[in-house]
Q: What sequence folds into this?
């Protein structure tokens, strides 16, 4: 009888819906059961270990967000250097080179927003080691933003960076104190 009375609580939690549950037990017991269920779900969420829980911490999960707050002039094949950091766990992104080096193998997500100067063309590619992946091309009147959003499988030591397209000199990444140009990446799954 006890299990049947509390089955609706389990169903509501697992479906992600919130609503009022009426039952014969005290509210203190209901809250305790609810807290226990939430705790168990958080341990199981994304663990992939049959209920062993997620044992990774923020310190051992590669993640970075770098940005520019000034213009960068680019020659043909130059790497964009996002030279300021908001986040850089495991120090995997190097502001002096503009390159992220994977400290662990796994599935990674990368995204970037780059802004061209007013009325200027900007042609960039995101590179995985020496292989061109996604491209961004902006052209026309006004300031334009190009974006990158990719998921890549990396080996330890693989490099990710954004580079100006060959044969396209005198391009500029625009940014100022509003930080219009950003580059981020993080490990999704080991």
A:
């Amino acid at each position: 009888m006890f299990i049947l009375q509390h089955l609706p609580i389990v169903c509501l939690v697992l479906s992600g819906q919130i609503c009022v549950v009426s039952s014969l037990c005290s509210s203190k017991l209901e809250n305790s059961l609810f807290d226990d269920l939430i705790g168990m779900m958080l341990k199981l969420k994304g663990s992939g270990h049959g209920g062993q829980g997620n044992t990774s911490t923020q310190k051992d999960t590669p993640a970075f967000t770098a940005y520019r707050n000034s213009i960068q002039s680019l020659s043909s094949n130059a790497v964009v250097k996002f030279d300021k950091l908001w986040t850089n766990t495991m120090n995997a992104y190097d502001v002096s080179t503009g390159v992220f080096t994977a400290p662990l193998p796994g599935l990674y997500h990368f995204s970037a927003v780059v802004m061209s100067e007013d009325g200027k063309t900007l042609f960039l590619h995101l590179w995985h080691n020496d292989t061109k992946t996604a491209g961004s091309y902006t052209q026309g009147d006004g300031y334009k933003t190009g974006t990158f959003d990719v998921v890549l499988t990396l080996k330890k030591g693989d490099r990710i960076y954004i580079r100006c397209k060959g044969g396209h000199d005198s391009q500029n990444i625009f940014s100022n104190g509003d930080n219009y140009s950003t580059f981020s990446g993080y490990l999704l799954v080991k």
